[in-house]
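#lab-general

N.A. 3:47 PM
ok so I finally got the sequence cleaned up, no stray characters, all 114 residues accounted for. can someone with queue access submit it? mine expired

B.Y. 3:52 PM
send it over

N.A. 3:53 PM
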Amino acid sequence: MSKHSPSLAALPAPAQAALARAGSRLRAHRLQRGWTVADMAERLLCSPTTWRALEAGKAGTSIGLLAHALWLFGEIDSLDTVAPAPMGLAANRRVRRKAGSTAPGVIDENERDF
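B.Y. 4:20 PM
back already:
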């Protein structure tokens, strides 16, 4: 059964095209290994129809299924390049702590018993 969602129906053409290209690359990886659709579905614990939807670039397929497929193909690191954080936000970013709390791994003077 296909998923009907206003957000999926409004998916822009460039996004649809990118999903179709990703699906084609997944199909190429599968064919390079000589695996059938049924083989992939068995390895991913999904139905052959779900795998075909991922290869077709259908927007409603699970990102977890995509990650599992990339792992099977030895390409899981390629997922790290999806939507990289802007350099200004990724570098030198401080983590907020509650006021009065100590940094992780630091023992407060009141906790020392020697």
